[in-house]
Task: structure prediction
Amino acid sequence: MNQPFENLTPAPVPFRRTLQSLEIDRARDRRAPTALAVVAALAWATWSVTARIPIYATSDFARLESRMSTYRIAPAVDGHISRADLQLGQIVHKGQILVELDSTTPRNALEEGATRLAALRRDVAALNRQVQAELRTSEADRARQAVAIQEAGAAVDEATAHLESARRQSDDLAKLRAAGIAPEATASAAGQDAKAKLARVTTLDLGRQRLETTRAVSAAEAESRIAALQAQRTRLEGEVAVSESAIAQLRHEIELRRIVAPESGRIGELQNVHVGTYINAGTGLGSVVPDESLRIVADLSPELMTRVRAGEPARFRYEGLSTLTHGSIAAVVTRTGTEVRDGTFEVILAPESSQPAPAIPLAHGLRGSIDIEVERLSPLDLLLRRAGELTEPRRPRPPADAGRGAAEPTR
Result:
């Protein structure tokens, strides 16, 4: 049965080894692709589990705004512009005069009122001096009259004492005459002397009363003169108050013709302003952007309201400019809106202070787009999420403006 193989000659040993080497090489060639495929599969599996892909909420409606409200440059009254030295982007300081309207008429009235007020104040000062002089004169007159009344009283007292003495002497002589001791002429003379001293007392007392009456009349006349002076002073003081009020009103009118910077900042908007131009009250001439740190305000779709949170990093890109050439601004979310208005909600972001100075200086009003990193997912989680979204039944969605905000993975 094995006869067909009996005549076969065994292969030489070297040739057999060559065949074995070829078989081994073929086996190695088949194992290398398999090993590479396994390594690639393991690497992909590791990457899909451990890697993190940032997910962004994007919006094409973002802008730079000042943290404080901008101030509108507008006159409060009508008039011709007499001074206007403004340029767009000019740095202004708080209290600096930006625009001034012609104030010739109120200034002339102010000078006239100031002159009249100075005259009134001098008149009031003169009346004050006159009143003081009248008071001093009245005091001196009262003192003089008081001394005179005291002297008259003393004279009356002295005359009264002499009268008492004369009466006693007259009584004594009358008794002696009745006894026949003293002559009648002597007693009669003593009685006449007593009557004369009584008349003297009466005269002196009337003089004292006249002095008291004169003092009362003088005091009343002095009070009348002082009251008249005080009334005149009160009238002048009223005129002074009216003049001061008129001057304050004129100064207010002059101030209304001056538009000053309420805060330090820059001229962010400027109309065609020329000296001599007549403008109406309330006409907008420009705006002052406060010199405060800027913020980024973005409008996002309501569906992102639950995904955007404070503290999430973001990046602002200038509208119409290449990011490679002009760069972008790193920012962080500081506050998110809680109400939906006009189909969007508002997100406030703050530019990071540690980043290098941007190629384009930050300025109020710059517009652009915003990319907010809302989360980081592994490729596997992202794939599973996409698969779940594809398998879920589609729900009708309200129409939204294109570019208002959408979440997308990193580009």
In short: The longest strand covers residues 53-66. The chain has a mean pLDDT of 82.
